[in-house]
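Quick log. Single chain, no ligands specified.
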Amino acid sequence: MDRNQVDALRFYQHSIALSIQDTNMLTLQQSLQSAGQVSMELGKIEDAEGYFKHSSQMAGKLCNPHAKIDAMERQGQCEWQLGKFKEAQEPWTNGKNLARKFAHHQRAYFILDRLIAMYSISAMSRQASECEQEKLAIANEAAAPAPAGAAYG
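-> predicted structure:
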């Protein structure tokens, strides 16, 4: 294990505890996300899964869709790595839907790639095909010109 990563994880865990004590939701969400990332790098996938799940919940409370999408995608990655394929589907699908809602086309596209890989391995060709069709729809949405009045002046 990398000593710096272990120290970083301890720092984030301490920050989580202080954030809870001080009810600082923004710092708590960021610390949970960072602890999840370091835990993944250390191979502590189950711990990372929990951090990302809680980070997603906090990002939702903070009305931060981009942080929530990131946390959900990473939670799904952890579940995938742990062999929890069915469980990975939920945060990936929810993250993809949220990304589409906020026109974060690239992130929705990447999450769809993850879902396609999962469905293909699981012999769920209909679902994989539906995701491929959704990717085409996203590409068309991203290429479409913005509606009149959509730009901020």
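The radius of gyration is 17 Å.
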